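User: Show me a protein chain along with its predicted structure.
Assistant: Here is one chain, sequence first, then C-alpha cells.
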Amino acid sequence: MFKIFRERFDSIISSLKLKSLSRNELERFRDDFIMFLIESDVAFEVAEKIFDDFLIEVEEYRINRFSDLNNELREIFRGYIYRLFKSLESTPLENRIRESNSTPYKIMFVGVNGVGKTTSLAKVAYRLKRAGLLPLLVCSDTFRAGAIEQLKIHAKRLSIPIFPSKYGHDPAAVAYDAISYARNRRYDVVLIDTAGRQYSNINLMNELSKISRINNPDEIFLVLDSITGYDAYVQAKEFNNHIGIDYMIFSKVDADVKGGAILTVTYELRKPIQYIGVGQGYEDLEPFNSERIIKLMFGE
C-alpha cells in the first residue's frame, strides 16, 4: 500500500541539496514538491495548501545545528501528516452505539456506483455482530435490479437479519419501516443501504436528502474508492454539500499505491475516516489508525 507515495517522497527528499531550512531555501523546491503530491493523487489546490502549511511547520521547528537537514525535513513532514490524521481519529463505532440513547442506532451508507458501498456495509455488520451487537440490514435501493438480492446474499452469509424490501417502494419509507421494525424487536443498530448515485444527478441526490430527512440517521457513512484519486475528493465534497457526512470508509486501500485520495479528502473535509478496506473478506475492514497509515506512507 502507498508504495509510489513512499518511494517518491524518499526520492525528492534525498535529492535536495539544502544549506538551511529557511523559507527562501525551501521555496526553491516548491514546484517539485507539489508535483510529487499531484503525482500521488493529491488534488492540486490541496497540494499547494499542504506545502504552505509545511513551510510554517518548518519555521516553527527547532532544528539541531548539527542535524542532517534532509532527515529533519523528512521527519517534519511525516509529523505534520501524522498530526493531521491523528486529529481526526474517531472513537470505535461499537462504543458510540452502546453509549447512544438512540434505539435503534441508525447508520446510512452513501456513495457513487461501484465504490463497494454494499460490501462495506456488510463488513461493518460483520464487525458489529462480532462485537456482540444485533444489527438489522435494510436495502433502500428499491429501483436498481439486483440490489435487494445483493444485500440478501451478504445477510445470508453473515447470518444477519435483513428487513424485507420490495422493488418500486419509496426508499425513505422502506428505511422508516425497517427502523420501526427494529425498534419493536430491540435491534441495536439499523444499517441502511442506499442506491449508488452520481453526485451530478440532482434528482437522486434529493432522494438521498429525503431518506436522511425522514429517518434522521445518527450517522452517515460515505464510502469512497481509494484508487479513484481526484474523483474521490470531488465525490466527498458533493455528498457533504448535499446531505452532510459524518464518517468515511475508504475501500480498496490494499490496491492503492499512491495514497493521495485519503490525504486530499482528509485535509479538505476534516471528516474522520472510520474504516479502510484492505481485502475482499468480511474481516478485511480495519479501523483507521494513524500510526499504521503513516508507516505505510513513509516507512518505519
